[in-house]
Structures are given as C-alpha cells and as structure tokens.
Amino acid sequence: LKHHDAHIGLAVATSKFKKTLYLSLDGGGDYGDKRNCVFGEYSNFKFKNLSEDKGLGNICSFHAFITDFLCFGMDNGKVNGLSAYGEVQSDLYNKFSKIVKVNKNGIKFDRKRYKKTELSFDKFSFEGYQRYKVVNKQPSKTNIFEICKGYLLEDVAKTAEQFLKDKILIFLYSLKKRKNSKNIVFTGGLFLNVALNGFISEKKIFENNFFNMAPADNGLSLGAIGFYLLKFKKKNLKLNKYGLNPYLGPSFGKDEVRKIIEKFNLKYQVPKNIYNDIAKNISKGKIVGVFQGRAEFGQRSLGNRSILADPRNMTSKTRLNLLLKKRDWFMPFAPAIIDEDFDKWFPNQHRNYYMQVTNQIKDKKLLKKIPSAVHVDGSSRTQLVQKEINNNFWNIINNFKKITKLPIVLNTSFNRHGISTISNPRQAVEHLLEGCIDLLYINGFKLKIALNKKIRNEQNLVKSEKSLLKKENENWFKKNKLFMDKISRKQFHLFLNKKFKQ
C-alpha cells in the first residue's frame, strides 16, 4: 500500500461515512509515494482518485520553510501557537502570493534553498538524539528567509497562518465545484493544524467535515489496515456509535505498578474516591499527572496519559510551559469538556473527541472563567469527553464541576518537552521525581512529589508574556543579524520598538 492510501484509509474507515470525498495533504509522502496531495471519492468500498500532485514544492513545504525561519525545528505546531501574538502584514502576505499558486491538482510553492545547511554538533546528545536537530541548522538560507527577514517573528507566523488558511479555502472551493458532496474527510500531516481545521469547519464549504485522530505518519499503520479492509475485504473497521475508540494502546496491572513504586521506595496513598481526590487537587491549583487504562493512539493525550490543571488560574499555563514541561512559553493548552455542557460553551460548533479542531468561546462571561485554557486569540483546542468512551476521565471532570461549577479541566500530554508521551509506569514515576508534576495518580495509587523529594520554589521565575515575546524576538535577531542586510535590520528594530515602545 502507498503512503497516501494509508492516510486516506484511516480517515475514511473511522469517519463512519458510507460515501465521502477525501483529501490527503502532506509534505510529500515518502520515497515510495512522492505524492503530496490526493483528492478523490469513496463509495461502496471503492476508492477513486480524482486528482493528484507530486513533489516537494507544495503548501506543506511552504509551512515547513516558515517553521525553519522561526527556528522551531520540525515542530510546525509552534508556528500556530506563536501566530496568536502577531498581526498580518499585508506587504509580507503579497510577497507570499508571488511564490504560492493554487491549481486544480494542489497548491504549488516555488521553494528555493540557496545553500546546504551546516551541522549543529552542539545539539547532539546521547541522551536524546534527534537527527534533524544536528543536520538542520536553522534558519536555512531559503527564499522564505529572504522574504521574511526584517519582520517580527509573531507577525511572520500570523501572516503565514492566515495565508495558509486562505489558500486552502480557495482550493476547497475548487474541489467543491468539481465534485459536489456533503461529506469530506481530511488527512495527512497538514491537518494536525487544529486552527486550520477549525477554520475549515467554520466556513462550512462541506456539510460534514471529519478530522481523524492520527492524520500524520504515526497513523499510517492503522490506516493501512483500514484501507486494506475496505478495498480488498469489503469490510469496515469495528466502530462504536461515536466512531473509533482512540484508547488502543497498552495498559498495566495494579501489581506491576505497585512493584515499580516500591522499587523507587516511594510513599504513596490509595484514595477511596480517586476521581474526587484528583478533582479536589486540581481545584487547589496542583498540576496532576494521570496514568490510567489503555494509552491513546495518535498525537493527542485524551485523558489516559495526561497532565491536568485548573483552567481558572492563568499561572497554570505558565507553570506548565516554563517550569514543568520546559517548552515554549506561548504554546496553548486544551480544555477538556464533558459532553453534557459542550453546547453551552461552544454552541453550533464542531464536536471532536480527538482534540483536532479549535473552537471559540463567544460568551465573554464564560471566556473569563477559564483564562489558562483559552489562547490569546480566544481559540481553544477542545476535547469533547463522552462518558461512554472514557468513563474515568469523564468522572474526573464531572467531580471538578461539582467543586467549581465548571465542566472543564486543562489537559496536555504527559511528557517533558522534546520526548514522546510516556508509555509505561516507570516513565510516569520519573516525571514525578523530575518535578514535572505535583501529584501522580497511577492505576489507583496517589504519589506526591512533596512527600518524596525536596524541591525548590520556582514561582519567582514566572515572567509576563509581553516580556517573553520581546525576548523571543531579541534572541532570534542576535543569532541571525549577520545574515541580514542593513535595511532588514533597521526594519526589524522599527517593528520591535513600535510594538514594545522602547
């Protein structure tokens, strides 16, 4: 099976649509499938591709070059996170328009790289080796660098994100004209962009939009199974009435967990009502790690391998980003909300169990109640929690609602920055001892960092977002000013001084 067949297989097989259009977009498949865009229709176990595009010159590559310019490695999601702090610069937008064109088969990007990237041996680590950090020294010398130098980083991110949305919108309208359908599924790495997904849903070009739980390459294995079953066996994946249950990973027995806790010689408790205990500590401002049941399949932590916090307190976001997860200060967190209250908070908006779409809280009174769960632009990457899908997580949130009158908790993946979501109990305990969380609830056991390790108070390290944004730009400029001409350096400082009134 080809790369994009597997992408399409997962989206179609988990959508529950008997007849649907499909669109798969990524940076270029792999060496066995060099397509970057596949559009087609599915009906009665038959897949019919209506158009395809190949090569690296595509809209996803454009976004990757923007990520490179901002020195965010391969983490395209950071562009979206930073964009909320910026403004669209019309002249920069127009420059993008000259190198990106929409046609009937895809979106073409005239990509240019002027020299090979140098190696960054200072990024090498035996402990956590990631090849791209060593091989891809950023920013690279590309046409995107030449176009974007001189602009503030957040404005580059904002302009690029808006440009991306607009081009995708034009492309979707063209697809709608070619093939009218009420259903469409989206897959491929591009659709990890939750803001883009929310934008698509809001525009309602198609009546029913479906975004699967693992659109990027880590969904290929299950997608290949889905494609094979549908096309060759004429069978559907086993789904419940809500779709595919995402909790497909490993689970661990209570005795196994107890042995690990005792091996570390840790003090622990076994609460009688663990859901109420978790909710009570979250309401007190504690950062809580939850490790329970089977692990999630896909990019998002959906309550079984999650770090939870109080959405009412803005310091929850700052503590999680800077002190515990050690990741970029501007990255947002997701509100997990129980199904019964979704329509009150997000009326007439897309419902998604996999945390794949952004929603907007339009009621200002509600907005003020959960400041740390809403990004600076008012968006929320919402997870709908259904009791029938995850009873444990639903009970945690429901108990939090009983205590605080709010049906929402802050949810993020159980991991430190730069490593995958944890997969076994030992990693959960190590995260506790490294100070990533205040408490760990693991298969019924409760462990407190304060009872097992003396830690220093880092509260004084918390800084304002305005000062952090200013520092972000200053650090980038200091690193890259040698590659900029006098005009772009002067322009950069004009933007910086105007924004921060120096």
The percentage of residues in β strands lies in 15-25%
State the strand order across the main sheet.
13-10-14-9-8-15-16
Please report the distance between the alpha carbons of the first and last residues: 58 Å
Rounded to an integer, what's the Rg over CA atoms? 23 Å
Question: Which structural category do the helix and sheet elements fall into?
Answer: alpha/beta
Helix count equals 19
Round the mean pLDDT to the nearest integer and report it: 92
Largest sheet: 7 strands, mixed
Question: Number of DSSP strands?
Answer: 16
> What proportion of the residues is helical, as a percent range?
25-40%
Shape verdict: globular
Low-confidence stretches: none
SSE arrangement:
Layout: H1 3-15, E1 19-25, E2 35-43, E3 46-54, H2 59-69, H3 77-83, H4 90-97, E4 100-103, E5 106-109, H5 131-135, H6 143-148, H7 153-178, E6 183-187, H8 194-203, E7 208-211, H9 220-232, H10 254-263, H11 274-283, E8 288-291, E9 305-309, H12 314-324, E10 334-338, H13 342-345, E11 358-360, H14 364-367, E12 379-381, E13 383-385, H15 391-404, E14 408-413, H16 425-433, E15 439-442, E16 445-448, H17 449-452, H18 465-480, H19 486-500
Parallel strand pairs: 1-6, 6-7, 8-15, 10-13
Antiparallel strand pairs: 1-2, 2-3, 4-5, 8-9, 9-14, 10-14, 11-12, 15-16
